[in-house]
Write a structure and sequence with these properties.
single chain, mainly alpha, two-stranded antiparallel ribbon, 10 helices, 2 strands
């Protein structure tokens, strides 16, 4: 996971709370635009990925709106009522998955059956088919990881992996960033899943652990890329709009 800038646990929540306070005290008024990501990162002395996660936390509460080519605007100064569900960020969730699922894969490698391997082969094919659909739900990807957890023959670990995947769907913050990643054409990598399958076929726990870690490390990188790419695309669209306005004025 070298090169990935990550926050200390829950740091983005603290920054989100400070942003909400700044909105409520009028520092960032309703209808106004928040400072640029890099300026907020300097102001709060955190990394830009932390700011992105904090903005997503505000976005799912309906406090701000991200407008393509323009910036992040304040919609409300009132915190949305919480529905009792648990919100975690996609970055936190994927870090947890990396720690848990890597060891689960190692355990599964020692006892997986031929029938379970055939099931995983079919799921890899389904992942490839789902990737051809722009609005695919990545159900085969989830089934692949849960099948490995089942093959570990440990109900506590299976329920843990199942819970983590459940959070990916039910946590508004995690779901939002994964949706942004999908829109940025970031999809499950077939070759990475094939590498995991190859290690499982070899009944090699170390290779299975390493393949799963490599896969989920890349997922982390991709999630950060999705937020960065979105900012780049917005900047490009904004610049293009300015050029078009300038062209009309000078024509």
């Amino acid at each position: 996971m070298q090169g990935v800038m990550r926050s200390t646990p829950r740091l983005y929540k603290d920054i989100a709370a400070r942003l909400i306070a700044a909105i409520q005290n009028g520092q960032f008024p309703v209808g106004g635009r928040l400072p640029a990501e890099r300026d907020l990162a300097l102001q709060y002395e955190v990394s830009r990925p932390v700011i992105r996660e904090a903005i997503i936390a505000l976005e799912v509460q309906g406090l701000v709106e991200v407008r393509v080519g323009s910036g992040v605007y304040v919609l409300s100064a009132s915190e949305a009522a919480q529905d009792g569900g648990q919100d975690v960020s996609a970055i936190e969730l994927t870090e947890a998955r990396l720690l848990v699922e890597s060891e689960v894969a190692a355990l599964a490698a020692a006892q997986i059956t031929d029938e379970e391997l055939r099931e995983l082969e079919e799921l890899v094919d389904q992942i490839e088919e789902e990737n051809k659909t722009p609005d695919g739900k990545e159900e085969a990807d989830a089934a692949f990881h849960l099948a490995i957890a089942k093959a570990a023959r440990n109900s506590a670990l299976f329920e843990t992996v199942e819970r983590l995947w459940g959070l990916r769907r039910t946590s508004r913050e995690a779901a939002l960033l994964h949706e942004k990643a999908r829109h940025a054409n970031i999809k499950p990598i077939v070759d990475e899943h094939t590498a995991i399958l190859t290690a499982l076929k070899a009944r090699d726990p170390k290779a299975a652990r390493d393949a799963m870690r490599a896969h989920l490390s890349q997922v982390l990188e991709s999630l950060l890329f999705a937020t960065e790419q979105r900012a780049v695309d917005e900047a490009r669209r904004s610049m293009q709009a300015r050029r078009e306005r300038f062209s009309r004025v000078t024509a």
